[in-house]
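So, could you explain the following?
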Amino acid sequence: MKLSARNILHGTVKSVAKGAVAAQVKVDIGGGNVITSTVTVDAVNDLGIAEGKPINVIIKSSEVILGTE
């Protein structure tokens, strides 16, 4: 599969919390960093996303927002 997105991070599914419609997927990308994505439960089921499985996080955005304390 080829993608136009250049921000592809490889990781492992840390947890999946399914709700009625949406699911929160936490992905460990190493170095103590975890990315959280909210997707539909159908997407989780169709893609076979489950704890411990390898997964790619693909970020395609027109904006990046930074914040500091």
Observations:
- The chain has a mean pLDDT of 92.
- The beta strands are 7-18, 22-30, 33-40, 54-59.
- The longest helix spans residues 41-47.
